[in-house]
Amino acid sequence: MKETVIKTDQLSKRFGSFIAVDAISFEVQKGEIFGFLGANGAGKTTAMRMLCGLSVPSSGTAAIAGFDIYKKTEEIKRNIGYMSQKFSLYEDLTVLENISFFAGIYGLSNSAIKEKSEALITRLGLQKEVKKLVGELPLGWKQKLSFSVAVLHEPKIVFLDEPTGGVDPVTRRQFWDLIYEASEKGITVFVTTHYMDEAEYCDRISIMVDGRISALDSPSALKTQFKAATMDEVFYELARGAKRGD
Amino acid sequence: MKQFINFVRKEFAHVMRDRKTLLILFGMPVAQILIFGFALTNELKNSKLIVFDQAKDPASQEIIARIEASRYFEVERNLSNAAQLESVFKEGKIKMALVFPAGFNASLLHGHHAQIQVIADASDPNAANMLTNYVSAIIQDYQRSLSKSSLSPYRIIPEVRMLYNPQLKGAHNFVPGVMALVLMLVCVMMTAISIVKEKETGTMEILLVSPFKPILVIISKTIPYLILSLLNVGSILLLSVFVLDLPVNGSVLLLFAESMLFISTCLTLGIFISVKTSSQQVAMLISLMGMLLPTILFSGFMFPIENMPYLLQLFSNIVPAKWFYIIVKSIMIKGLGFSAIWKETLILVAITAVLLIISLKSFKIRLA
């Protein structure tokens, strides 16, 4: 039984004469890990911001968790989680304070906050660091904590904008374990990345070039289609034709 | 509502955790009041003065004695010849010299006309002006005591009354000024910085993606500074009443209500700056240069607005601190009620409303 949680149709965003996102159409199913790839400046972040309700599209339609992107932004916000490319917890608050704050703004009850934060701390093995300021944690832990906080309110979809930038391979692997766990719980994961090994971990990936989606399929199907041995080659093949970059 | 409290609690955690800033925020008003109250004063006391008395008669001695008795001067020494005068001034320690011509008393009594030369070091023009005024006053006083005995038929004695501040205390001027300054600094700069900080670190995006209303994000970020500022108003008032002996003549409640209004004005200014800037440094620079400087220059507490060129006088009207300064003076010192300050209050309300509307508009545009 398939359930579509993200559906876009001809979604576009123009800034003056510049078309950042050019009529993209795709669907993402529940529980899927959807990789959103593209070179710098291809329009990934702009597209993601529109899906999160941070930016209003210029034209086209989209539904997130079944809610219209123009009219039902409040409902959408309640059903998504978001982790930006900048590390985004409060460094001057403790681990526990961060968790309960973010749980709190999603309106979780006190007992739920307590229960969930305990579970989260145990899962991440942060028992000893609960009272530490987040700023004192190593980057890898911060990223994991940041992701766990983004899915704490059990959203239908979680958007990750280059979540593993600057993190070592071992921590990245652990981070992906968390992503798989979330996906098994039925949370759809929408992730942008620059790392092609991470692209291999996704169920399906789309590759954006110059604001358009030029390829969309599972990693193995894409490799067959482009007669490439690795995702690196697929990406290079497509991105080579790009006219804009940074 | 629960979410809102949760948010405000987090804001307090930010403020409380930053001990250094907290210390500055609470220490600054206390330090300023004490510095203005005891170290910086407009009055000149114990200025060094030299005398070149060629007369050495009762009249000159009497005047010198009176000058020495006043707390403004300290008579340094007598000169023996006029040539020493210049070298003495060049040393820079002596601010003023009095020269009595020979036969001073005789010409005063018989010719009814005597001259004293007063020489002041005018490299600091304000000080020179004040010192000559002091000396003239002392000499006039002596003259009056003379004419009492000689029964001159026509006399006009002006009776001067300094209203609201009979002792011409500086505190009447700077307490309201420091209040405006501190509130401006805390509210504008701290609010602007704390909101921009969320933008800079990326947490603002997370908040905007959450179901928490953006307008509530802004409001809850201002609440700690609102409370902090009210505490500051309290501490300034306590200091001025108990340390500087400057009572609050009007209603304390009204004073706090007006302070709340001015704090709101400053908070919206802070929000406005934070909406328009994207880095903490820029926000701080704008708050300092764009807000603090005009507050010092145009609120009227250091420089009288009446003496400024017309254009600057016009400009001073959009500086919120000017109106707050007038309000505080009216309540604290003149003891006036709301009927006397409703115009100023209305202007502050209008400034706040305009700022709020502009910031909310641009905040929405940024979201799109």
TrEMBL record, chain A:
Sorted UniProt keywords: ATP-binding, Nucleotide-binding
InterPro entries on file: AAA+_ATPase, ABC_transporter-like_ATP-bd, P-loop_NTPase
Gene3D superfamilies (alphabetical): P-loop containing nucleotide triphosphate hydrolases (3.40.50.300)
PROSITE patterns named in the record: ABC_TRANSPORTER_2
Domain (ABC transporter) ranges: 6-235
CDD domains assigned to the protein according to its UniProt record, in alphabetical order: ABC_DR_subfamily_A
GO molecular function: ATP binding; ATP hydrolysis activity
Keyword Nucleotide-binding: yes
PANTHER family recorded: ABC TRANSPORTER G FAMILY MEMBER 20 ISOFORM X1, ATP-BINDING CASSETTE, SUB-FAMILY H, MEMBER 1
Protein name stated in the entry: ABC-2 type transport system ATP-binding protein
Organism field: Pedobacter caeni
Automatic annotation (TrEMBL), chain B:
Record has S-adenosyl-L-methionine as a keyword: no
Domain of life: Bacteria
Gene Ontology cellular-component annotations: plasma membrane
Signal peptide: none
InterPro entries: ABC-2_transporter_component (IPR051449), ABC2_TM (IPR013525), ABC2_TM_bact-type (IPR047817)
Membrane-spanning parts: 21-40, 174-196, 223-244, 250-275, 282-304, 340-360
Any one Gene Ontology molecular-function term assigned to this protein's record: ABC-type transporter activity
Gene3D superfamilies, A to Z: abc type-2 transporter like domain (3.40.1710.10)
A Pfam family hit: ABC2_membrane_3
Main localization (coarse): membrane
Keywords of the record: Cell membrane, Membrane, Transmembrane, Transmembrane helix, Transport
Record flagged with keyword Repressor: no
Subcellular location: Cell membrane
Span of domain ABC transmembrane type-2: 128-366
Membrane topology of the entry: Multi-pass membrane protein
PANTHER family: MEMBRANE COMPONENT OF ABC TRANSPORTER YHHJ-RELATED, MULTIDRUG ABC TRANSPORTER PERMEASE YBHS-RELATED
Family classification: Belongs to the ABC-2 integral membrane protein family.
Official protein name in the record: ABC-2 type transport system permease protein
Organism, scientific name: Pedobacter caeni
